[in-house]
């Protein structure tokens, strides 16, 4: 067998510094797509967000009186709720008030605890946080924590078959 002297050893094998340099470059290169995606202004909707607040008419513009159309009464009655993820003041959820079916309740759908989305639970007649189970009444008031602040509520009205919410 042929013995390798120190000079030949370094020619045949990579030294530690070169190896670590290449590992570092590889690590940075492999994380670059993740960094680019994180900086993107495009957002995606999770299945929970889609299920809890169906996007309706999210491109609508507020009228001169401050009201913005968010959907139709037919859609509200069919789905039990109207949602708008791109409402001017934040995610919106509109339901019929169970205590007075002729009136509507509209709330900002971001929980005041950790900003998770709330979902309307018709059988319980409450808005429930999908993350931490806080419960809110149709008036936005906290019924069960951990949230301590009420949900923001909005003025609503009906014009024909259109549901309007004041910005």
Automatic annotation (TrEMBL):
Keywords: 2Fe-2S, Disulfide bond, Iron, Iron-sulfur, Membrane, Metal-binding, Transmembrane, Transmembrane helix. It comes from the Bacteria. The chain crosses the membrane at residues 20-38. Coiled coil: none annotated. This is Ubiquinol-cytochrome c reductase iron-sulfur subunit. Residues 67-165 form the Rieske domain. Its cofactor is [2Fe-2S] cluster. PROSITE patterns: RIESKE (PS51296), TAT (PS51318).
């Amino acid at each position: 067998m042929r013995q390798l002297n120190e000079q030949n050893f370094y020619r045949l094998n990579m030294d530690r510094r070169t190896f670590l340099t290449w590992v570092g470059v590889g690590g940075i290169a492999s994380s670059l797509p993740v960094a680019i995606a994180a900086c993107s202004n495009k957002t995606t909707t999770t299945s929970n967000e889609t299920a809890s607040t169906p996007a309706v008419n999210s491109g609508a513009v507020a009228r001169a009186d401050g009201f913005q159309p968010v959907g139709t009464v037919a859609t509200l009655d069919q789905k039990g709720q109207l949602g708008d993820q791109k409402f001017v003041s934040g995610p919106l959820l509109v339901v019929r008030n169970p205590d007075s079916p002729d009136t509507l309740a509209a709330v900002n759908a971001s929980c005041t605890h950790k900003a998770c989305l709330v979902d309307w639970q018709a059988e319980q007649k409450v808005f429930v946080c999908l993350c931490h189970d806080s419960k809110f009444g149709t008036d936005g008031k906290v019924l069960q924590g951990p949230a301590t602040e009420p949900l923001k509520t909005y003025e609503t009205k009906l014009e024909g078959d259109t549901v309007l919410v004041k910005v």
